[in-house]
Amino acid sequence: MAIIKVGKEDLKNRDSALNELREYFSGLSASKGREITYSVRTYGCQLNESDSEKLCGMLESMGLTEYEGDKTADVVIFNTCAVRENAEDRLFGNLGIIKSDRKNDKDMIVAVCGCMTMVEKNVDKIRKSFPYVDLVFDPQHIHLFPVYLRDSLRRKKQLVNISADDYIVDDSLVPIARKRKFRALVPIMYGCNNFCTYCIVPYARGRERSREVGEIIEELEILAYQGYKEVMLLGQNVNSYKSSEGDRFPALLKAASAIKGFSRIRFMSSHPKDISDEIIEIMASSSNIETHLHLPLQSGSDRILKLMNRPYDITDYLKTVHYFRKMVPDGSLSTDIIVGFPGETEDDFKRTLDVVSECAFDSAFTFQYSPRPGTKAALMEDQIPHDVVTERFGRLLDLQNNLAYKSNLAKVGKTEEILIEGMSSTAPDILTGRTMSNHLINFTIPDSLKIEGKSADDYEGMLCDVKFTSARPYSVDGEMVKLK
Ligand code: SAH
Ligand code: SF4
Ligand code: F3S
Predict the structure, then answer these.
(1) Of ligand 3's atoms, which has the minimum distance to the CA of residue 46?
(2) Of the candidates 10, 142, 285, 321, which lies 20 to 30 Å from 356 by C-alpha distance?
């Protein structure tokens, strides 16, 4: 599979589709006497969120506005994930729900894109059971969405456009409607070469391809100038970033850190086989790189790691963890763990519990193994019965919840800088934000620090100091002591 840099022809074609669609939707808007709206529903990881921001950007340049009511938008796009089976179930459930709206409105458009579309049986199912879906396209061609949309409107019949070329797109050439006014998602590389035996991502996203340093830095400089406080450098395995000139991730991270304006630079994910001491040292010595490392463990058993095709062992992993804890003492460590991988014994699982205790993860994403069609692990013998998996999963959750609570408890009494993310979802007048170490904080503002005429929402993206007063299992409570 060749890596294809998006060419001028593609972009010309896309822009002419954009123009046509702008006219089409403007006509539709005139005939309906109202704005034409879109909704992009995103499942999956931050890379998918980032793709959705591009889809939203393109929809807005067609003249559409984001739908905010509780009915259905005129254009609905499902940007799907395939990493576990439940993501698929959710999509099919939602497609069922939207059926009557689509049938009753001949102008409505329903599209499905994202990683799920790279699994043939899913596309077959959409063809057979959901013929009212207008358009299905793959995640490597997001930038050509306007072309597909125009073609599907011309065709008036379901259009399926799936191919597996490894495209690389200069993000500055795709309009992006960023969801958060303070946080920018910036993919630095696409795809994955690791082929962990359980994982669908390399099939869905193609081979690794890195954007050029200059391109990324230019995008970051513009974002800093626009006032973004936080930037997230994204890739399935950022430590294998390699530009065509041979620049590696440490150089990129340093260059990003030198840009004036960002208070927080985050990156994810790091593969334990590729993370270097140098990255940890850069984290330790930079004032704007977050002190949070996401380092997926997957299993605490060397035997299972081998079966997973994760080429590191627990001794290596613990070495990295201890170095991180030593160099970044206020930092936090998060991880991903799969329970019930084929062949996992009680002894293997106990090793996972031991490693989790030793690492004292500040937070963890824990998953029950889900066989993915086309992956090696799906064909392995000795798939673990569901009841065994759920029982182990419960034990892991209990342990990890306890560790997360302890990590939150250790914050109580301290005062740290928080980047405000907005209002808490549970209580009005309570703000929510994160520390440099990615701890989630809910806090009140004393009357003396309230800004006249500002609602809680207006604080989004501001920095403040918060004194932490008490801990909960998943968050810390506190009170603002200074607004910056
Ligand atoms: N590239 C990232 C992970 C991307 S997928 C990395 O390697 O760190 C996010 C997480 O989903 C993985 O870390 C893994 O824990 C989980 N996952 C992936 N495939 C899975 C499967 N088939 N069943 C259960 N969990 C899975
Ligand atoms: Fe999947 Fe492994 Fe690649 Fe992560 S590194 S995306 S888990 S194959
Ligand atoms: Fe899911 Fe695709 Fe991300 S499978 S986790 S949305 S790369």
Answers:
(1) 3
(2) 285
pLDDT value of residue 178: 92
From the centroid of its chain, how far is CA 298? 18
pLDDT digits (tens, 9 = 90+) for 105-116: 999 999 999 999
* pTM: predicted TM-score of the whole model, two decimal places: 0.94
* Minimum-distance ligand 1 atom for the alpha carbon of 372: 22
Candidates 2.40.128.270, 3.30.750.200, 3.20.20.80, 2.40.110.10; CATH matching 291-410? 3.30.750.200
Six-digit token pair at 117? Answer: 């579309």
Class of domain 3-168: alpha beta
Query: Which H or E run contains 265?
Result: strand 264-268
- Exposure string for 416-433, b = 16+ CB within 10 A, e = fewer: bbbbbbbbbeeeeeebbb
Protein residue closest via CA to atom 24 of ligand 1: 369
Exposure of 87 by Cβ count < 10 A (0-12 exposed, 13-18 middle, 19+ buried)? middle
Which superfamily, per CATH, for 415-483?
Answer: Nucleic acid-binding proteins (2.40.50.140)
Is the CB of 113 within 6 Å of ligand 3?
A: no
